[in-house]
Amino acid sequence: MATYSISTFFNLGLLLLFANAMPLLANAKTQYHNFVVQATPVKRLCNTLSTITVNGQYPGPTLEVNNGDTLVVNVVNKAQYNLTIHWHGIRQMRTGWADGPEFVTQCPIRPGGSYTYRFTIEGQEGTLWWHAHSSWLRATVYGALIIHPKEGSSYPFQKPKRETPLLLGEWWNANPIDVVRQATKTGAAPNVSDAYTINGQPGDFYNCSSQDTVIVPMDSGETNLLRVINSGMNQQLFFTVANHKLTVVGADASYVKPFTTSVIMLGPGQTTDVLITADQPPARYYIAARAYASAQGAPFDNTTTTAILEYKTAPCPAKGGASSKPVNATLPAFNDTATATAFTTSLRSPQKVEVPTDIDENLLFTVGLGINQCPRGAPASTCQGPNGTRFTASMNNVSFVLPSNFSLLQSHRQGIPGVFTTDFPAAPPVKFDYTGNVSRSLWQPVPATKLYKLKYGAKVQLVLQGTSIFTAENHPIHLHGYDFYIVAEGFGNFNPQTDTAKFNLVNPPQRNTASVPVGGWAVIRFVADNPGVWLLHCHLDVHITWGLATAFLVEDGVGELQTLEAPPADLPVC
Ligand code: C2O
Question: Is this structure's pTM higher than 0.70?
Fold first, then answer.
């Protein structure tokens, strides 16, 4: 990977010409990277698979920047699949062309093609990540994106001795693209993964893996900032470290009011920054993650991935025999919704924040699965869902269909008709007991490419209401291009009469991905201050495959600073 910085030249020029302006401008840097995406042999669980990677690395390279920096990443597609890269959680102010979701903000980079993503990090600090946003490529095409405070500023907590990104992933003993293609053909749920991973390694509890288990070294007494990222495909995960307390200080690149816990829960897409202090007897301790599986009766990968927190003064594992076996970690039960809820409802912003009030757009979107009847005359092999049906999913009974001839953003910007409509409903077309027993007539969503239009600057409240069609389940709902405040969450049907009183309008947490509780709801608020087309979707990839998505079309405001930039010259078109 070629990495260099032009800041030196830039600053030298400034030094000579505008010495007085230095304190204002000196820190902003531009970083250049090359991502070459190609098939690479990767051995896991005793098998070598041809795996799509970035620069031959799995997980891919970690990008580290300072708040205010500009990233320029040239992506070269040497794989045999269409490709895009998404910078998960980056606000992309006016640079929607660099956001990345396939057919939303760009057409895919075709095999043999390339595209340069350019964007500036504005006012964000903490842990984000990047991942492919085309089919299921992100199973192996992902990496950390770490944003440090501006040079000269510091964390709102004591600077840790070390920092360690921990990417939680999922591994299949198969090509993930084949896994999703098979599911799309049969209408059934895709196969669950064969392992979870920490920084690409399954750990001690899997075959052919223990020699490669990730080691996190620490000195007694020192503090480490663990940047935990759920980059898994389809599973919420609990995460813990044996015998150590975790002090939560950030989530989705926003700081939170610190609190201490022994376990955290992350849905795919979410990140959590925790401080850990080596205050235990020198030894080796398991770092572990396994499923939080909220859907009753649905199959899931019930394995446990581990890494090892190793005190540098701990007895050497080779000589120590049984005594050097890492201390076991205790994880909650797979269906421990109480623990998941206790964690998500403990998150607060560090101080009072400006939550939008005087709401312009009051929205209620149902989110959940659906079932399609087998089309007349279709072979049974294509209807392998429950009772001879096909799985689908929807928001407000619309199952989102991506276009294939233009991206949504291009169609919007150039006024190309016939690609999408803007009649996505502000509320479910039929009101029903969303989390109760649902009548069969409500099971079949309508496939369409419907967007919801927002005026620039609109203050939006969105109630995300889970449904229990087929099964209720926790959904990690991600909004591109925005951070939002989660002002409340709860179980059952959202009731504006009684639940509004429970809103936290003082210090709610700010995130880009909300965990909508199983059989429940979450309420988010944001100001539509970033023009463009922004995907809103469940970050369980199996659900986005089935259509659990929509997009906001945010109009331009007044003047250049409220207007989407022009598309870059090398933007891939279809
Ligand atoms: Cu991290 Cu649309 O995704």
Answer: yes
Specify the pLDDT at position 279. Answer: 97
In a domain, 45, yes or no: yes
What's the CA-to-centroid distance between 133 and ligand 1, angstroms? 7
Q: Are residues 249 and 162 in the same domain?
A: yes
Nearest CA to ligand 1 atom 3: 88
Please tell me if the CB atom of residue 480 comes closer than 6 angstroms to any atom of ligand 1.
Answer: yes
Q: Is 370 in the pocket of ligand 1 (CB under 6 A)?
A: no
Listing DSSP states for 405-444 in one string gives SS-HHHHHHHT-TTS-BS---SS-SS---TTS---GGGS-
Q: What per-residue string of b and e applies to 178-203 under the rule 16 or more CB within 10 Å gives b?
A: ebbeebbebbbbbbbbbbbbbbbbbb
356 is a domain residue? no
CB atoms within 10 A of CB 342: 14
Residue with tokens 């050497």, as numbered in its chain = 316
In the chain, how many domains are there?
A: 3
Q: Cβ neighbours of residue 497 under 8 Å, at least 6 residues apart? A: none
Per-residue H/E/C for 1-49: CCCEECHHHHHHHHHHHCHHHHHHHCCCCEEEEEEEEEEEEEEECCEEE
CATH number of residue 31's parent domain: 2.60.40.420
Residue 138 near ligand 1, beta carbon < 6 Å: no
**Is 354 contained in some domain?**
no
Helix (H/G/I), strand (E/B), else coil: 134:
coil
CB 543 less than 6 A from any atom of ligand 1:
no
| Cβ neighbour number for residue 410 with a 10 Å cutoff | 24
Residues 367 and 341 in one domain: no
User: Do both 325 and 446 map to the same domain?
Assistant: no
Domain residues for the domain of 65 are: 1-155
Question: Phi and psi of 516, rounded to 5°?
Answer: -85, 120
pLDDT tens per residue, range 189-239:
999 999 999 999 999 999 999 999 999 999 999 999 999 999 999 999 999
Same domain, residue pair 259 and 383: no
* Of the candidates 395, 405, 386, 412, the residue with the CA atom closest to the CA atom of residue 447: 395
